[in-house]
Design brief:
This protein has about 350 residues and is an alpha/beta fold. About 40% of the residues lie in helices and about 20% in strands. Strands 1, 2, 3, 4, 5, 6, 7 and 8 form an 8-stranded parallel β-sheet that branches. The chain has a 6-stranded parallel β-sheet with strand order 11-10-9-12-13-14, sandwiched between helices. Helix 3 links the parallel strand 5 and strand 6 (about 115-120). Helix 2 packs parallel to helix 3 (about 105-115). The chain is globular and about 60 Å long. The model has no long low-confidence stretch (mean pLDDT about 95).
């Protein structure tokens, strides 16, 4: 088929380094491997687009905060729709596959213009997420667009059953399927030797190393991991492969807990080097706090499992299902510092 992949999310560049960008590129590679003709519409990254695709990638408008950030997202989505219209019409897609984005109705508009089937991939209800963790500006317009995209699509692909349930509440008569995230088994199935990995990352050879990989967000529960570290013996340490908006707060917390010397902040780590991080560690963490609407399908969880690293994770949503109620990893009460520490000790 001829498929146009659309993502107007300013945080998801093509190519990009964030998990969402890596996921989008994996979807693109999957379509190409299935021998579909492909076109990609989205945000330009810091390198060339994937080979073998017709790409319309507009430059990022630059960082902004608050209301200006919302205005930028709104303007970018509208500009992308207009500038891609002629190229998409010439490509004549049979399917437009859109990753849901805040204020993003680009795929919906292009599908309407070309008569293509519209498929929307939903990794989270972004208006709900933005309102809960940041500050949703232009809320009425954001909600209106999100509902129109979800309700109007021919098919909705939800990343978890929790997301699918919320989507069905919004559009009860719409076709919705659940496709959880996956993993690059070739990349994560072949780890380097632990000694070499530790030497490369500066992890002491006699340490018991816990690790966390991914962008550092308020809802990832790294504060719980730091507090748990304070209850563990001195040879235990935490390796953090990732960066994010609250790293400074977490570094300050580590200092106040007197565990700063036992935390190795690696900053951003290229995806192809994440297996080295996992090889250096004894246990991998997904320490999410209590979240009322936990609907994630954490990429890190699949990567931990593919690498064969013992997992300690919060007992929430899809995590429980993936770990088979604790068969494939230890499940702990979300936000329970003592429970997390005990589970890590059990692994040790």
């Amino acid at each position: 088929m001829r498929i146009t992949v659309v993502c107007s999310d300013l945080g998801v560049r093509v190519p990009g380094t964030k998990g969402a960008s890596l996921h989008l590129e994996a979807v693109i590679r999957g379509f190409l491997a299935a021998e579909h003709q492909l076109q990609v519409i989205g945000v330009a990254g810091h390198g060339p687009p994937p080979p073998g695709v017709d790409a319309v990638l507009l430059p990022h408008p630059g960082r902004a905060e608050g209301l200006q950030q919302a205005l930028n997202k709104l303007a970018f989505a509208d500009a992308l729709s207009q500038q891609a219209a002629a190229r998409v019409a010439a490509f004549r897609p049979e399917v437009i596959y859109e990753r849901l984005a805040l204020f993003g109705n680009v795929g919906m508009a292009l599908a309407a213009a070309t008569g293509a089937a519209h498929v929307v991939e939903i990794n989270a209800l972004l208006t709900r997420e933005e309102a809960a963790w940041r500050n949703l500006h232009l809320a009425d317009e954001a909600v209106r667009r999100e509902l129109a995209v979800i309700a109007g699509a021919d098919l909705r692909v939800a990343v978890s059953e929790e997301v699918a349930t919320a989507v069905r509440d919004m559009a009860s008569d719409a076709t919705t399927v659940v496709v959880p995230n996956g993993v690059d088994v070739e990349l994560f199935g072949k780890l380097p030797m632990r000694a070499g990995a530790r030497a490369e990352l500066g992890v002491p050879p006699d340490a018991f190393a816990m690790c966390f990989t991914g962008t550092i967000r308020p809802w990832h529960g790294l504060d719980v991991a730091l507090r748990a570290l304070a209850h563990l013996p001195q040879q235990y340490m935490l390796v953090v492969a990732g960066d994010g908006e609250i790293r400074g707060e977490l570094e300050a917390l580590a200092g106040s807990l007197n565990v700063a010397e036992r935390v190795r902040w690696l900053g951003h780590v290229a995806h192809e080097r994440v297996p080295t991080v996992l090889a250096a560690c004894n246990v991998a963490l997904a320490p999410y706090p209590p979240l009322e609407h936990f609907a994630f399908s954490p990429l890190k969880l699949y990567e931990y499992l593919a690498a064969g690293v013992p997992v300690v994770a919060s007992d929430l949503g899809q995590i429980r299902q993936v770990l088979s109620d604790g068969r494939f990893g230890k499940l702990v009460t979300p936000g329970d510092v003592q429970a997390l520490a005990r589970a890590v000790l059990d692994v040790g």
